[in-house]
User: Fold this.
Amino acid sequence: MTLVRFISADGSRISEVDAPAGKRLLEVAQADGQPLEGTCEGQMACSTCHVIVDAPDFDRLPPASEEEEDMLDFAADVTRTSRLSCQIWLTEKLQSLTVRIPGTSHNMQGR
Ligand code: FES
Assistant:
């Protein structure tokens, strides 16, 4: 299990969930009701699943692929520790993971 901690864009809400290894971070976030659209369902074609990873956790994740880096260029509010949550798989080794929802990630239902 990985203890995943989601911090809301303004930092006011923290949600903690236990998620099993093998899950994608995007799925865990959506199951928890986090406002990540993930429009392309992990095809690396949208960047609406962008999250900002806590710096120490960022260093423990496998690095982003070139495709992911390219897609992140299109995301708003990108930081040095930005990742696409559809490209992060939880593992047994990763005991905890803290991510923040970017400020401009509105839940635009129906676009
Ligand atoms: Fe589209 Fe992650 S869901 S890039």
Helices lie at 25-31, 55-60, 66-72. The chain has a mean pLDDT of 93. The beta strands are 2-7, 14-19, 50-53, 82-84, 96-100. The chain has one domain: 2-100.
